[in-house]
Each structure stands twice: as C-alpha cells, then as structure tokens.
Amino acid sequence: MAVKDILSDFPARKQFNYLSTASIGLVPNPVIEILKDHLITLSQGGTASFDEELEVLVYDNLRKEGAKLFQCNPEDVAVFNSVSEAMNIIAWSLEIDTGKIVSTAIEHPVVTYPWLRIAWNTAVNVELIKAENWCIDIDEFLEKIDDQTKIVVLSHVEYLSGQRFDLAPISKKAHEVGALIIVDGIQAAGYTPLNLEQWNVDVYITGSYKWLCAPFGSAIAYISKKLSEKITPAFVGWRTPEDMWNFDAVNLTFASTARKFEYGTSGYGVKFGLTESIRYLQKLGIHNIAAHNQKLVKLLLNELNTIKGIEIISPSTRGSIITFRIKDKPVQKVGQRLRNLERPVEMSIRQEMIRIALHFYNTESDVAHFVENLKKILNEV
Length: 381
What we know:
Order of helices and strands: EHHEHEHEHEHEHEEHHHEEHEEEH
CATH superfamily of the largest domain: Type I PLP-dependent aspartate aminotransferase-like (Major domain)
Shape: globular
Radius of gyration: 22 Å
Number of domains: 2
Strand order of the largest sheet: 2-8-7-6-5-3-4
Number of helices: 12
Distance between the termini: 43 Å
CATH class of the largest domain: Alpha Beta
Oligomer: single chain
Strand content: 5-15%
C-alpha cells in the first residue's frame, strides 16, 4: 500500500488543508468503519456479541500490534487510557523519595507534572533544563545526568519545536549512573521507526490520537521486563492479577507481565480502534511514512526560508513538526486568515508561533497551498 493510494481514506482533505497532526491526527475511513461495526455490535448484542474471550482479545491484540510498533515482546506492553494516566501510574509505582529527576523546562506538562507532584512530599529534586530559543542543548542535558539522578524523563520529539532526541546516548548516560529513562513518544510514534530494546529505554509511552491516527482514549507503553519485575503497581483493580476472571476479593496478586499495570474496565472500542490504526500504518510501512514526511518537511523548510521575516524554531534534528515565528506580523491574525480561506489551512498556534505538522496523508500540493497563501497573507497584514 503506497501513500498515494490512501488519500481517499481521508475525505476531509478536500474540505481543508490539514496540517495539525501534532494536535489531533485524522482517522482513516477503513478504521472508522470497523469502529462503527464494533460499536453497533457491542451496543446491540452485549455479552452475546462480546464475551470474556473477546474482551481479553481486545487488549491482547493491541499488545501484539503495539509490540510490532515498538519492536519488543508483547509481554512488555501495557494498555492505558492516556499518556497522562500511564506516566502517573509508572511514576507513583516507582516509589521514589530521594534523588534527582532530570527533564526539560519546555516539556508538555504530561511529562513533568507527575514528578513535580511527587517532589511535594519527598526529598526528590526535579531539575528542568532550560532551552535556548525553544531547543535543548543535548550536551548540557547529558551533563546534568549525574550520580544523584534517579529518573531521566523527556519527550522523544518535543511538542512545540519538533526537536527529536537521539535516545541511545541519553539511555547510556542514564544507565551509567543507575538511573531510569522514561520517554513520552506521542509526538514520534506513528512516523518514527522505533527500536526500544536496542535504544535500551526503560519506559516508552505513546497515545492514540495524534500520529497513530486513532480515536481518543487509548495509550500503550513499553515497560522493560527488568523494570516491570522490580516494581509493584501503585494502582490495582480486577485486571491486575494473572487470572483476572478469578474475582478473588481476598488475595491481591499480580500478572507476571506488564499487563499488571492495567487495572480496570475502559473504553474497549477505542482500544480496538488503536489496534486497527496501527495495522493500517504497518501496511503503509513506518519507514515509508518517515521518508514521505521528511520529504515534505524539507520542502516546507526550503519554501519558508525564502520568505522574509520567517524565523524557523525547529532544529535540524527534528521530527515531522516545523514551528516558526513571523517577525513584526500579528500571528493570531495570520492564523485566522489561513483558517478562513476557501480551503482552510488547519494548523496550530503555540507561544505566538505557527506549528505545522505533516503526516502521510499530506502531499506536496498541501505544502504549496499553505506557502502560497501564507505569502499572500503576509503581504496584506
């Protein structure tokens, strides 16, 4: 399946120029149809159409597809409802009460808030590395990882600048001092080839509704076997034990895999949807998506660099996100004009900058349409 063959799976592309996957990704029609069938069958049939075996399979199938995405063992994949939930559960399960947490001051709050909250009632020190023009100096970041460090937590790709970190050297430095590395991959998984065991990360979390092109309400996490075996879940429920259908209210036991971090009933339909979306992406090929996206990113950068007053924030080591300032122009007004075109441009404005996020359903003509209209608007405002 080639990228050009799937554009009809996203009919909304004809209505607007969608350049906002870093906020919400578009869900392909085949996945939507499967979701609709699943919802109708479950709603009308109850246990007659969704028995205990199928209930187990929803999670097991997602674990299998997640393992293909992560290139890991399915037993090391846990299913959650959101990245925030996963990050909090893992953070509190670690029961850290001393030492240092290293992260950055430009992270999305989902990355830093759990650790800042833990620091309220412990001797934990959270050190957030400051950025220069919204980008992190990797050498400075590595220098901050010392023998006091317990956790290194960061995004694989930063949500604003699109800066992408090489995880292998960070993981190496963290492990040299006995620290863990925990990664939020929601802005990377879906277009970035992943090999978590090779990079030797301890935890990698990603969510459904951005680059994985699935509905809201689902997330998956790789939790290394070594770490999973060492810690006890902070939150428990009926899904926690090895045999979750035993319903033993007296004896609390834990599954022998990362599944022990799953604790309660949730939206099965969205888990089903994420499974199907990952399959859809795998048919396209993550490497093919990566090459397609980078081709568009380079094209956009080349065009933006010809426009007077544009300052690119995104560094050379980046994902599929390009963020830029417009000098001496009202960015909110520019954004409003772009959204009011005959074929509106859907993008994000963050910190008085425009963020463009290009995915496999975007084309060179989408880039040309955006640049052409941006130039025209900048000449008029």
